[in-house]
Amino acid sequence: MRKIIFIFLISIFLNCSSDIQKNFISLFVITEELEIGDNRVVLTALDENGNTLTNDLRFFLRKLDRNETIEIKNKSISSWPPNRNVFITKINFDEVGYWEFIVRNGKDEAKATVNVKQDSKILNVGDFIEPLNTPSIGEYNISEITTDINPNKDFYKHSIAEALSEKKPIFITFATPGLCVTGTCSPQLEELKKISNDYNDLIIIHIEIWKNFKEVMDKGDLSIGKLNDSVEKFGIKTEPWTFLINTEGKIKNRYQGFVESKELKTDLESIIEY
Description:
By secondary structure, this protein is α+β, with helices and mostly antiparallel strands. Helices cover 14% and strands 29% of the residues. It contains five helices and twelve strands. The protein has helices at 160-165, 185-195, 213-219, 229-234, 261-269; strands at 25-29, 37-47, 58-63, 70-72, 75-80, 84-93, 97-105, 108-116, 170-174, 203-207, 241-245, 251-256. The strands form three sheets. It has a four-stranded antiparallel β-sheet, with no helix packed on it. Strand 7 (97-105) and strand 8 (108-116) form a beta hairpin. It is globular, with a radius of gyration of 19 Å.
């Protein structure tokens, strides 16, 4: 059985791309799936004590085999649980290979290198999703399809196939609150709950990572977990992941890790026809 690999993003972003510098600042690129074209990139800078930095930072980007360095000016600050600040930016990569992010704070500088690929194995912006028969409360008790201790039943009314047939915008989030290694799955669902009643034509679907999550929880052993079919179809290897789908069934945005409700609302309203 293929195992899913989780990334512990919150405590210190240890598995993110980074070149630790011998100075008082470190840079981490939280987004791991990067490919040619437009990408949503999440960055964080830490001081020597592991505290996130936000003030007086300038970010730059360059292809390692080029001399040109471009300053990243279009960025926003987002608050991640439990008490971390990250920077969100959109980058259009025009070539595969290794790229270097640079952060400067006065005289201090840190770098992080990422590998941009031709294609991501995870469904991306522009891809159409399949009409999958994912678990819903039409077939299961809600306790059988979610580890959320306070579930919003509306998140489990539709399978992906049923949601697509209604021709409405859809948020699909893959997360497992009861087994979440990153610590962001429950907070992610809470962000979606914040906007669930704001739009009459919005469908939100939560899908667990493991189809046998009760067995995994009882035995405390992730290695026996069996992936939900939709997790494999989307190509997901980390959690949480959230996707915004338009009325035609096309992915308009994808979000690795945590994403605040304000960003979700902004992206949703950009595709809603009033």
